[in-house]
Amino acid sequence: CETCKQEVPGDCPVVYADRAGYSRQWHPACFICCRCSEPLVDLIYFWKSGAAWCGRHYCESLRPRCAGCDELIFSEDYQQAEGRAWHTKHFACLECETLLTGKPFALDNASLLCTTC
């Protein structure tokens, strides 16, 4: 098994990932996302950089995810602060909803706040 490195008995079901090549195999419980360890045996998986990825983490490896709405950001026009990204329309104060682009703000536990709030 590629994940646990234990031998797979001949009578045990195995998972083959077409994109990984048929020389690699996994116990069904060991075929997991390389980022979150979600079991992938019954899900669509993605193969990137020699590892299996769940759909959520594969997409996040390509595009940022908005901290405001949790959707992927496809636009090139978005805001970033402290390793997080927001759609421009979601880069707003959590309390008063004032847009914060170009204004001072505080980031409190992933929540944006204007200086007044």
Automatic annotation (TrEMBL):
Does the keyword Zinc feature in the UniProt annotation? yes
Kindly give the SMART domains that the UniProt entry links to this protein.
LIM
Query: Which residues are in the LIM zinc-binding domain?
Result: 1-63, 64-117
Q: Does the keyword Cytoplasm apply?
A: no
Q: Which UniProt keywords apply?
A: LIM domain, Metal-binding, Repeat, Zinc
Entries under CDD domains matching the protein:
LIM1_Testin_like
What InterPro entries does the record tag this protein with?
Answer: Pk/Esn/Tes, Znf_LIM
Q: GO terms for CC?
A: nucleus
Could you state a single Gene Ontology molecular function term?
A: metal ion binding
Under the heading Pfam families, the entry gives: LIM (PF00412)
What is the name of this protein?
A: LMCD1 protein
Gene name as annotated: Lmcd1
